[in-house]
Amino acid sequence: SLPTLPQVPDGPYSRAPFVHKSSSQHDRTSAVGDMTYERLEFLGDAYLEVIATRLIFSRYPHLAAGRQAQIRERLVKNDTLTQFSMAYHFQDCLKAGEGERELARASGKILADVFEAYVAAVILSDPVDGFKRAEIWLTELWAPILLREFGPISSDGGATFNEYNQNAKQELQQRIVGKDVKLEYIENRPMEQTKHMQRYFISLFLTGWGHEKQLLGSGEGQNKVEAGNRAAMDAMVKSKDIVDEAARKLGVLREQRKLEAAAKE
C-alpha cells in the first residue's frame, strides 16, 4: 500500500499542481493567480533532488559519490515519478484545455511534472512543516525501491550496501553443492507485516564438506525468493572462508572424476 498522500490546504497551491497552461489560458478562474503545474514543477524538481540526496547520503554514506548519484537518479527519474502519479491517480485530477486534456493524461513526462509540482505545493503551502512532511512521505515512498534494488537501509548508516543479486542462490549452489552436500533455506522468524510491505527472514545452512547444519548467512526481503537470495549473498561475504573451502573441495572432486573418466576411455 502507498503512504498517505500529504494534503495541500485550500489556497493558491491546492489546485495548481493539476492545472495545465491550456486550462489557465481558457479559464483563469481555475487557477489562482494563473498558476500551473509547469511553474511549480521547476521548484518541485529541485526539492526532490535535495530530499533524495539527503536520504542517500545519510543511509548509504560509505558509497562513492558516483554510486550515490546513480541511486538518486533511480529515485527521481521520470519513469519513477510517473508511476507514483498514476498510483495516486493524479491523471484523473488534471485540468487542461479540450485539445490538451487527453495528451496530458497520456503523457508520462507530464505526469512526472505533476508529481514534482505536488511536492512543491506540499512544501510551499506549509512554510513551517512542509519540507519535513514531504521528506517523510517521499522516504516512505522510495523505501520499497531502495530495499528491492539496493538492499536494506538503516538510519545509523551502518548497513552494508549490497546491490540485489537475483541469481545468488543459483550461483552458490553451483559453487559448492555436490553429492551428499545440501543447502537449506529456513525461515528463522515469522513474516512481519508492516504498514507498507511484508518482510520475510531466512537463514541459510550448509550440511556437507565436514559441516552439519552450519549457519552461513541470513537475509530478509519482501518475499521468500528475495530473502533467500539475500541469505546466499550474505553467506558469500560473512562465510567466505567456508564457501571458498567448499568450492575448492568440489573443484578437486570434479577434477578427479574427469581424470577417472578419461582413464576409462
Automatic annotation (TrEMBL):
InterPro entries per record: RNase_III_dom, RNase_III_sf
TM stretches of this protein: none
Lineage: superkingdom: Eukaryota
This protein's GO CC annotations: nucleoplasm
Keyword annotations of the record: Endonuclease, Hydrolase, Nuclease, RNA-binding
Boundaries of every RNase III domain copy: 18-127
Enzyme Commission code: 3.1.26.3
A Gene Ontology BP annotation from the UniProt entry: box C/D sno(s)RNA processing
Gene3D superfamilies to which the protein is assigned, alphabetical: 3.30.160.20, Ribonuclease III domain
Keyword set includes rRNA processing: no
Chain positions covered by the region annotation Disordered: 1-27
Recorded catalytic activity of this chain's protein: Endonucleolytic cleavage to 5'-phosphomonoester
Molecular functions per Gene Ontology: ribonuclease III activity; RNA binding
Protein name, entry field: ribonuclease III
